[in-house]
Amino acid sequence: MRHHASASNTTRNNKNKPSSNLKMVGSVRARVIRTLLAIQNGQSLSSVLDPLLNSLHEGDKGFAHALLLTTLRQWFALERLLNTLAVNNIDEIEVRTTIQVGLTQLLYLQVADHAAIHETVEAVKEIEFAHASGLVNAILRKVVKNTHKYRKKCDKNHSLPNWLAYQLKQDWSEEYAALTQGLRQPAPMFLRANTTINTIDAYQQSLVEADVSADMVELVSALQLPNATDNAATSVHTQALRLEQSTAVAGLPSFAEGAASVQDMHAQLAAPLIHQALINKVNADALKNDAENTNELHILDACAAPGGKLAHWLELLNTDKQSPLFHVKQQDTDETSDSTSSRTVKLTAIDNEAPRITRIHENLERLHLAQSEHINLNIVCADATRWQGIGESKPQQADKNAPVFDAILLDSPCTATGVIRRHPDISLLRAEEDVEQTVSLQAEILDNLWAQLKVDGYLLYVTCSILKQENVEQMQDFLRHHTNATAIEFTEACNWGIAQDVGRQCLPIDSASGDGFYYALLKKTV
Ligand SMILES: C[S@@+](CC[C@H](N)C(=O)[O-])C[C@H]1O[C@@H](n2cnc3c(N)ncnc32)[C@H](O)[C@@H]1O
């Protein structure tokens, strides 16, 4: 019996919590400091970033964004540096945060010394900690005497909480130095062209015409899928567009009209992989002339919000309308000829957070994917540890407990340690004890969904974590407890990720490459 916790994937901050609320008044620096205090108080960057930026004049937004994101990326390194700079311990989080914002300007943003010091001292007064203005001034003045030395000191080592750095060293000793430095850098911006509206080449061309430089990155996956002819690996190709410079989506051609989505290049592997696995299942069923599977296919995107991978899967389904998924070849009763009938694909998407479900609907509307002729789409707010898809599919089915899904995409809740470059608040918000809770939640979801997968069906397990406990170790544990599961091998012909005992792991080391995702494909054998 595997250990299960009833916990949800929550984040906590176990440090002294600052008291201030998010008050968007005063100078840019004071607003950034207040935003950082709100994050230390447990709020996510995504919930506070827009209120901050929307409160500012257009001309100040870029600086505020850079100051906030860079301070978060360098947070733990700045904390360590601050501890060596102060003669006495500084207990007030408001004061520490202000000094860290000052250090970011001096060490990472090349703000002129005088402006950085003067404005930061003014900001500490604005947040009503004027008694510390002398201290802030003294520490920042000390640093400008030798910024080169302090920058070097700050860059040494990692900028992560110690528990996370320790775990990464255990998991990735060879890659550790590059990985921890990689996590301090910004990530490139990637797009996915909506192939139901334009080809990838055509969208790249429209980017050129809009003066947005982008190159195409091709990811190749090679899967040792059973039933492939002569045991050759099945190749799956994914093409992502990488922008030379990150930009606001409003500046991208036809973005509002649904021509493209922002999605990390490694996140763009998920839909093509499960789509190919589904095609393989359908082809294998056809060879076996499996009547039960001929009329309807039912597929599941579990943990679907805000719908990035769901939209991608719908794009693939809608782009290839001649696919065997929609057309069933049947042998006529006299066995002398074949006929073809059409088949509906039922796609169910679930997530347990209602506000995030609203975002799925908004995203699909923008991409013109909310409705389509061949696909019966059903979006449900439900808890994947308990939800039963039975009856959703075939209410008239005799055996109410028979599994119903031909393929399942499980983009699992996780610690999101693989996307720290984009969401640097994760380093501050995650606590060590979250890992075990998350691993238990993942196991619970896996168990519940596995029981609902048909024999010969596939489940793609995905996380944006770089911790082995949530990834390869989760899969090893799953395979030990489910003898009817087999892991499909990703061969060395894959040009992404690092082969694991089960599945493949991408690490966010290369500043031009994608985030830290893990992929494992499982097949149900009996
Ligand atoms: C990694 S995100 C999914 C991202 C999504 N697949 C995409 O590509 O846009 C994980 C999702 O799991 C959902 N989640 C967490 N616990 C869940 C549960 N017990 N049941 C269903 N969904 C859950 C979260 O609300 C979150 O939206």
TrEMBL record:
Positions contributing to S-adenosyl-L-methionine binding: 303-309, 351, 383, 411
UniProt keyword list: Methyltransferase, RNA-binding, S-adenosyl-L-methionine, Transferase
Domain of life: Bacteria
Residues making up the signal peptide according to the UniProt record: none
Chain ranges of the SAM-dependent MTase RsmB/NOP-type domain: 179-525
Keyword S-adenosyl-L-methionine: yes
Residues annotated as catalytic: 464
InterPro entries, sorted: MeTrfase_RsmB-F_NOP2_cat, MeTrfase_RsmB-F_NOP2_dom, NusB-like_sf, NusB_RsmB_TIM44, RCMT, RsmB-like_ferredoxin, SAM-dependent_MTases_sf
GO molecular function: RNA binding; rRNA (cytosine-C5-)-methyltransferase activity
GO biological process, one term: regulation of DNA-templated transcription
Entry's Gene Ontology cellular component terms: cytosol
Region (Disordered): 1-21
Pfam families, per the entry: Methyltr_RsmB-F, NusB, RsmF-B_ferredox
PANTHER family assigned: NOL1_NOP2_SUN FAMILY PROTEIN _ ANTITERMINATION NUSB DOMAIN-CONTAINING PROTEIN (PTHR22807:SF61), NOP2 YEAST -RELATED NOL1/NOP2/FMU SUN DOMAIN-CONTAINING (PTHR22807)
Family: Belongs to the class I-like SAM-binding methyltransferase superfamily. RsmB/NOP family.
Listed name of the protein: rRNA methyltransferase
Lineage: Bacteria, Pseudomonadati, Pseudomonadota, Gammaproteobacteria, Moraxellales
